TrEMBL record:
Keyword Cytoplasm in annotation: no
GO cellular component: plasma membrane
Molecular function as annotated in GO: amino acid transmembrane transporter activity
Name of the protein in question: LysE family translocator
Superkingdom of this protein's organism: Bacteria
Repeat is among the record's keywords: no
Location (main, coarse): membrane
Organism lineage: Bacteria, Pseudomonadati, Pseudomonadota, Gammaproteobacteria, Moraxellales
Length: 200
């Protein structure tokens, strides 16, 4: 459960990839950038598979509850930063360069937000949930579909709602809601730590 709460909260919060999708929607390009969304998803799948199998091999199960504690504290920190951030949206209506698959693949591969999603999930949550072997690929595929859906949703919202969504107040409300989801995710990880310490 915490895996999906965590990944959705981070992936769907305002960030560079989502802003690119939003800007494309605001400039009427939603139907022309489907390759961009596919590139984002493929990048996340590649990163999840690589880090997922490496994480399963490198993290001893006996220490996973200590890593869960670190992950919980880190998640609370991200939630705090998200809930106290003030988002400013800047869209350039003059540029209408169509985004393609490789734009999505490379921007997501180089996106620091992607690492915020991947490392805690592959090193903490996968081992804690006993996600190993072929399950790593299956769960990573579902998360990657969600990653592709984030800029797609922003782009769709931009095309439907238009300039109303460009008001930063709505994005700041979204930050706070997603921050609450992150806190819930952190509590699940804290619970994994306590279970590992045989305190509950």
């Amino acid at each position: 459960m915490e895996i999906f709460l965590y990944t959705l909260s981070v992936m769907y919060s305002p960030g560079p990839v989502n802003f690119m999708g939003l800007n494309a929607g605001l400039t009427g390009q939603f139907s022309r950038i489907l390759g961009f969304f596919a590139g984002v998803g493929c990048s996340m799948l590649m990163l999840f598979v690589v880090f997922g199998y490496a994480g399963a091999a490198l993290i001893p199960h006996a220490y996973s509850h200590f890593i869960a504690l670190i992950g919980a504290l880190y998640t609370f920190y991200i939630a705090y930063k998200m809930m106290t951030a003030h988002t400013e949206l800047k869209t350039d209506q003059a540029e209408h360069k169509t985004l393609n698959f490789w734009n999505g693949f490379w921007i997501q591969s180089l996106n620091p937000k992607a690492i915020l999603v991947i490392l805690p999930v592959t090193t903490i949550m996968y081992p804690a949930a006993h996600i190993t072997g072929s399950l790593i690929l299956i769960v990573s595929l579902f998360i990657s579909l969600g990653a592709a859906g984030a800029p797609l949703l922003y782009s769709f919202a931009g095309s439907v709602i238009g300039k109303k969504l460009s008001n930063p107040i709505w994005l700041n409300y979204l930050n706070k809601v997603l921050g609450i989801f992150l806190i819930a995710s952190g509590l699940f990880m804290l619970s994994d730590f306590l279970k590992g310490m045989h305190l509950i």
